[in-house]
């Protein structure tokens, strides 16, 4: 693992009107490393992702890319650095077909004209490697199921060799097999030396693929854990902010019932 | 005890098991193993060949993906009715007049389709067209400026006015409806001011603007030549495109489908060419309109700029996150609408051989929007082609001329055009519902 992180956030803060969504957040991601970002609903995970992706510019703090401070003020800046993002709300255009959405904003051109043939060929290739089943790559996104859309959004982030891939709850709408494929994909990205930030509420997924778990609570850091040496209970108590919480209470209850 | 709540823990077998919970459900190994791309049996795979084409057409119809079918049927019905009332309707002279008269509205409709694709509206195009006519007339007639320069100034003014509206909408964030409503009033006043007290300025019928609607390529080779170029161009681009698709190993259309489409186009193109040649030949106005339609269709469907416009009509936020400069695209689209408004204004001035105070007023704006919508452009954004302007404006102008032939007065014309527009939006809304239930909205 390289010494300088690909991406480092130093004291990042973000406010939405009266809501202080992020306060002094620190985060480091190295090449070939999968960092899971976890936290309760409304903890600020998606907001953090959007600041990195340039959707919501940060109010305070520094974003470092390969050790030097960079300004990420619009999505284009992040794309130019090599950051690819799968948003929780997917951000696809319903009226445009699958191929068009995959290449939106970076169309392949041939003598200045859209090269639909090449885009369709590459789209099929990509979707095949991800073993995705879609009725046709030429139907509008509106005709796809939620999970199929999610897969299209993930495929979109894989185009163009990104250095850092951010996945905001990529498996939330996916079936068993597709989830496994996305997790495989995350591992493949790591093997190829990409940095990955994975947001998930599913502890099993996090444990399965992540190297580090960064916990966010009420918009602040609440610890970074090594997945191999940390138990799930520790992570969950960091997420909820207490060792005694709804999850442990429920577990105790089910355990007690099981023992009866 | 365990906190694993997920019914099936998925992921890689080895890593998932490091959680070490004995009673945690073990993940299904089937997940990754035989996951080669099996074809989903439910997929609607199109049959090869011509049967497949017909099958797909039927399926599209049932799914509410009507495309241009309702307008074409409507147009045929309109022609049949007027022809039965008066046999002069389908005569060469009347048809020729319809084709030349529709160009002014049609050009403006092309511009408004760009705005409708964003899901916005531009109410100022009528007034802007009047400004363009007034600028040209005042510069060239009153001040003796070279007419070409005057035309260029008018076109530039249209684009700048449009960009200004775009600026207030895209940069300041004012609703396009309100900004262009203000524009409608402001530019109408501006035109009256420019025209001055005398009100009407007659333009030189032999000048640049004058000839826009009065010049005909009287050599019959012109109309036939254009038809041949159109048909051959269509066939070649479809055929060569298909060859590339085959070479790349992606689905392509059957040759029979291309031949059928080309044949239909050829019938239409040559019928129109024969009609022109029975009168005075190919009108310059129609040639220019055809060039504009081909060029704008290319711009919208084959360039990344056009893709950006469609994307904005689908989802502004998704476009922004894809790195599209939303503000710039929006401003440029309003500039295009302004440019085509002033082009339309020149054709209008040419038709009445004057720039006058009523230019751009009356039912012009409504006809421009109605033509776009009747032609099949969605008012909700993201769906439409500039060819819609041709179909829509043909319908509207045919109704106007048909009723005029019957000596039916303007009030009835308005009511009928209104009825057709209502029928169109009803069809549009109903098909949207069908499309929703067929998962295609
Ligand atoms: N555009 C916005 N305007 C105002 N407030 C916002 C905006 N986006 C997020 N917030 C607020 O910021 C906080 C963090 O939201 P965020 O979406 O980052 O949570 P999250 O951790 O992703 O939650 P979840 O797990 O539910 O996706 C919330 O209190 C939310 O209300
Ligand atoms: Mg979120």
TrEMBL record, chain A:
Pfam families per record: ABC_tran
Name recorded for this polypeptide: Sugar ABC transporter ATP-binding protein
Domain annotation ABC transporter: ranges: 7-243
Organism domain of life: Bacteria
GO terms for MF: ATP binding; ATP hydrolysis activity
Alphabetized PROSITE patterns for the sequence: ABC_TRANSPORTER_1, ABC_TRANSPORTER_2
Keyword field: ATP-binding, Nucleotide-binding
Cited InterPro entries: AAA+_ATPase, ABC_carbohydrate_import_ATPase, ABC_transporter-like_ATP-bd, ABC_transporter-like_CS, P-loop_NTPase
Organism in which the protein naturally occurs: Streptomyces antnestii
